[in-house]
Automatic annotation (TrEMBL), chain A:
Protein name (database record): Ribosomal RNA-processing protein 42
Domain of life (superkingdom): Eukaryota
Chief location: cytoplasm
Record keyword Cytoplasm present: yes
Listed InterPro entries: ExoRNase_PH_dom1, ExoRNase_PH_dom2, ExoRNase_PH_dom2_sf, Exosome_comp_Rrp42_subfam, PNPase/RNase_PH_dom_sf, Ribosomal_Su5_D2-typ_SF
Taxonomic classification: Eukaryota, Metazoa, Ecdysozoa, Scalidophora, Priapulida
Family stated for the protein in its record: Belongs to the RNase PH family.
Gene: LOC106808205
From TrEMBL, chain B:
PANTHER family for the chain: EXOSOME COMPLEX COMPONENT, EXOSOME COMPLEX COMPONENT RRP41
CDD domains: RNase_PH_RRP41 (cd11370)
Residue span, Exoribonuclease phosphorolytic domain: 21-152, 155-220
Lineage: Eukaryota, Metazoa, Ecdysozoa, Scalidophora, Priapulida
Family in the record: Belongs to the RNase PH family.
Entry-linked InterPro entries: ExoRNase_PH_dom1 (IPR001247), ExoRNase_PH_dom2 (IPR015847), ExoRNase_PH_dom2_sf (IPR036345), PNPase/RNase_PH_dom_sf (IPR027408), Ribosomal_Su5_D2-typ_SF (IPR020568), RNase_PH (IPR050080)
Pfam families named in the record: RNase_PH, RNase_PH_C
First and last residue of the signal peptide: none
Protein name: Exosome complex component RRP41-like
From TrEMBL, chain C:
Compartments (UniProt record): Cytoplasm; Nucleus
Domain of life from the UniProt record: Eukaryota
Name this polypeptide is given: Exosome complex component MTR3-like
Species this chain originates from: Priapulus caudatus (Priapulid worm)
Principal cellular location given in the protein's record: cytoplasm
Alphabetical list of Gene3D superfamilies matching this protein: GHMP Kinase, N-terminal domain
Length: 296, 246, 296
């Protein structure tokens, strides 16, 4: 990410502000910045979402493909996360410069989506013919700008993109004895939707001074020594928990952060579900006339 | 020829355009705040983002520095979900490397590089959705981003892809037309001085048709220039107003 | 299209160290364990009625350990650890000079390399690091770096290489413990040693230091929560958690509960580490004495 240099005085200003529950941009410690979300922005993908969280900007595209299922799990589909840190976000990402960050984000996401309930609710539907054919969803994440709490932004955008994903319906006509034949449905509106009820949202809590904040801006990330990342589902369960950044945390503060993170995550999920419903309504009302706002 | 006919008997193309008609161009400058300059352009369904960093100190090995002019660094990448079939890698394949080279040559010829000796200018373009004329859209987006960054140019660089089929020249061809194996021209030019900075042709074309096709391409690039110039002027006046001026 | 595909394939082949002496099996061949159904593993017997696990431990017991410091003569510090059948070796090299390309930095740098030996797991591992190993390297680095006084060796880096020789569960926690001990053995200045411990939540019991069989056993049912495994890296005398990772889905209270058990486990391991360090230093001192007396 871009190197940001802060003087000691600036750091102290931010830390003291956090202590008094008033941050530099006027938020309190567990407030998110304004989030702009739009689904179905890329027509060449099965599902897509673009999320702008203040200066953080990510674009997620989901593409479905048929493949053979993994041998140890023959009756589910699979998810493949791929993150591309575009050089647009920072010149240091040019060439292979963003690969470390990209790998870290994709492994964090894969871990968050690996819980049993999540995979059973989402991936069972993606099986076409057990141990023969299943759908693989390539979730491609494009990082366009980094302005703090990238992991949170990415996870929200992924959930939104998955909820907007339309996988074509495949009919299986089993010709006797031989291999089952697959037939794509002719009707483009006849599609399978992904159940994102158990998909988690990531909440990153950064420890600044003696308190912790959610959705840290770039400046706040510089002031924070350690942070705790947690993926929270709609029911408030945690599917991924990870200490990140090079610092350590007191066990007591982890317990506190867990509770804050849960509450924030519950709220975030609720807001997101509402927003996605709104988007869905908009889509059905406008039909094909709707033009995505995108970057314009 | 197999497949659909590119231009119908009534003189219309598959998407309903006339042969000399461009797709709708929509663009915006200043999409990102971190970068020195950025722009987004939509040409029909082709969507491209471009960012410009610099002029700044040479990054990486110092040996790239040129003592009399700026070093222009380009990167072309395509989002993995931008094409019909998923791309394995966003960059690094042969086609992207070629595009990067072309971009570099185009902009080295246009930027007044001699004003910034021993420094570097980065141009990064990202194709979000590909529907034909990718390179042209990238050049147009990069031009807007360079203008947004305030880097001195000789002129706008306007690019357009032109096709020639059945004695008809069609401008700004889309992906469907590209796949019909027609003669294809990619042209980038400086519209005021009518100078070409990049010219690429694939397939074959009779010499007699060449001047006709070039004329059409010149006309198309000038059309693109009108649209881009309008957008830049609108953007500047908007910023001017936001600064509190009338 | 075809040529570009071909070049990418050749590049891929060139990057892979191929054993040309070996007759390779068919490309899609798989080891037979893949077809071992999860139901074949005896789930019910993980904890017997008398509260004992398969290897006779109670739920909150850790496995017996064997530790030996200074076993790689070329490395500055090295440690071999056994937790019953989990066997780990670690070598620490440095502080040594940065590579030439890097810029000057006031802080030293730590690099971690985590590798499963090809023969360490049930399925054969590749020579090259795969995605899981890269993620574990990252986690190892994040767990160890808070403990090291990086400002003490500017412009230099310390490399930590961990190889799992045999994986019988809790590989990451063994690697962290082994790595921090090797750092201490190398004489790198640290704030505290890092001790790591894993725990598996299984029905109502929390199994400390799980074996591979206990890690693999599938979660209860598809609709279950409060199942999973956590690894905690802990600095006991500072009372700080330096690493935390969770797999599975659970409520935050359960998270806290498991973390507490892990911390207890860490406190059990800590004195053993101290003891082994003292032993190794005594030994090296006596060697010096012997040499000194000879010279006299």
């Amino acid at each position: 990410m871009t190197d940001l240099l802060l003087s000691e005085a600036e750091k102290m200003f931010i830390i003291h502000g956090v202590q008094d529950n008033l941050r530099v941009d006027g938020r309190s410690c567990d407030d998110y910045r304004h989030i702009e979300l739009e689904t179905d922005v890329v027509s060449s993908a099965n599902g897509s979402a673009r999320l702008k969280l203040s200066q953080t900007d990510v674009l997620v595209g989901v593409k479905a493909d048929l493949t053979t299922p993994p041998t140890d799990n023959p009756d589910v589909g699979t998810l493949e996360f791929f993150v591309d840190c575009s050089a647009n976000a920072a010149p240091t990402f040019e060439g292979r410069g963003g690969e470390d960050l990209a790998r870290d984000i994709s492994s964090t996401l894969a871990r968050a989506y690996s819980s049993d309930r999540c995979s059973s609710s989402m991936l069972k539907a993606l099986c076409v013919v057990p141990s023969e054919q299943c759908w693989v969803l390539y979730i491609d994440i494009l990082i366009l700008e980094c302005g703090g709490s990238l992991y949170d932004a990415v996870s929200i955008a992924v959930k939104a993109a998955l909820s907007s994903t339309k996988v074509p319906v495949v009919k299986v006509t089993s010709s006797d004895g031989g291999k089952p034949e697959l037939e794509l449905s002719d009707d483009p509106y006849d599609s399978l939707r992904i159940n994102v009820k158990h998909a988690p949202c990531n909440v990153t809590l950064s420890k600044i001074g003696h308190s912790h904040v959610v959705d840290a801006s770039l400046e706040e990330e510089v002031c924070s020594l350690a942070s705790l990342m947690m993926a929270v589902t709609e029911e408030g369960t945690v599917t991924m928990l990870k200490k990140s950044a090079c610092g350590s945390l007191h066990p007591e503060s982890i317990y506190e952060m867990l509770e804050t993170g849960k509450n924030v995550g519950l709220n975030l999920n609720k807001q997101l579900t509402r927003q996605l419903l709104d988007e869905e309504c908009l889509h059905t009302q406008m039909g094909t006339n709707r033009e995505p706002k995108g970057f314009l | 020829m197999a497949g659909v006919e590119v231009v119908s008997e009534q003189g219309f193309r598959t998407d309903g355009r006339k042969p000399n008609e461009l797709r709708r161009i929509r663009c915006k400058q200043g999409v990102f705040s971190h970068a020195d300059g950025s722009a987004y352009i939509e040409q029909g369904n082709t969507k491209v983002l471009a960012t410009v960093y610099g002029p700044h100190e040479i990054r990486g090995s110092r040996s790239k520095a040129l003592h009399d002019r700026a070093y222009v660094n380009c990167q072309f990448s395509m989002a993995t979900f931008s094409t019909g079939e998923r791309k394995q890698r966003p960059r690094g394949d042969r086609k992207s490397t070629e595009m990067t080279m072309h971009m570099k040559q185009t902009f080295e010829a246009t930027i007044l590089t001699q004003l910034y000796p021993r420094s570097q200018i980065d141009i990064f373009v990202e194709v979000l959705q590909a529907d034909g004329g990718n390179f042209a859209a990238c050049v147009n987006a990069a031009t807007l981003a360079l203008i947004d960054a305030g880097i001195p140019l000789k002129d706008y660089v306007c690019a357009c892809t032109v096709g020639f089929v059945d004695d008809v020249t069609i401008v700004d061809i889309n992906h469907l037309e590209e796949t019909n194996h027609i003669a294809e021209f990619t042209v980038a030019m400086l519209p005021k001085s009518e100078q070409f900075v990049m010219l690429e042709m694939s397939s074959r074309l009779h010499l007699d048709h060449l001047s006709k096709v070039m004329d059409m391409a010149t006309k198309a690039c000038k059309d693109v220039h009108l649209v881009l110039d309008r957008a830049v002027r609108d953007h500047v006046s908007e910023v001017w107003q936001q600064l509190g001026n009338t | 299209m075809l040529t570009s595909m071909l070049t990418s394939i050749t590049i891929y082949l060139n990057a892979m160290p191929l054993d040309r002496m070996r007759i390779p099996g068919p490309e899609d061949s798989k080891p037979p364990f893949v077809y071992e159904t999860p139901s074949g593993v005896d789930v019910s017997n993980l904890v017997k009625t008398n509260g004992c696990r398969k290897d006779g431990r109670k739920a909150d017991h850790i496995r017996p350990m064997f530790i030996k410091c200074g076993i790689i003569s070329q490395a500055q510090g090295s440690v071999y650890i056994e937790f019953n059948n989990t066997k780990v070796i670690c070598g620490v090299y440095g502080p040594r000079e940065f590579g030439k390309r890097e810029d000057f930095s006031m802080n030293g740098r730590l690099t971690c390399d985590f590798k499963f030996a090809t023969f360490s797991c049930k399925q054969r591992r590749q020579h090259q690091q795969d995605a899981e190993e890269k993620e574990l390297s990252q986690l190892l680095l994040q767990s160890l770096s808070p403990a090291v006084c990086l400002h003490k060796f500017p412009k230099a880096q310390v490399d930590i290489y961990v190889i799992i020789l045999e994986n019988d569960g809790s590989a990451l926690s063994a690697a962290v413990t082994c790595g921090s001990l090797a750092l201490a053995d190398a004489g790198i200045e640290m704030y505290d040693m890092v001790v790591a411990c894993s725990a598996r939540k299984y029905f109502n019991s929390i199994l400390l230091d799980p074996t591979a069989a206990e890690e693999i056993v599938p979660m209860k049912t598809n609709e279950s929560v409060d199942e999973g495994e956590m690894t905690v890296a802990y600095m006991p005398s500072l009372n700080q958690v330096s690493g935390l990772i969770l797999k599975g889905e659970m409520h935050t209270q359960v998270c806290a509960q498991i973390m507490k058990s892990c911390l207890e486990g860490c406190n059990l391991i800590y004195p053993v580490l101290q003891q082994s360090l003292i032993t190794s230093i005594r030994k090296s001192l006596s060697n010096v004495d012997l040499q000194g007396s000879k010279e006299l």
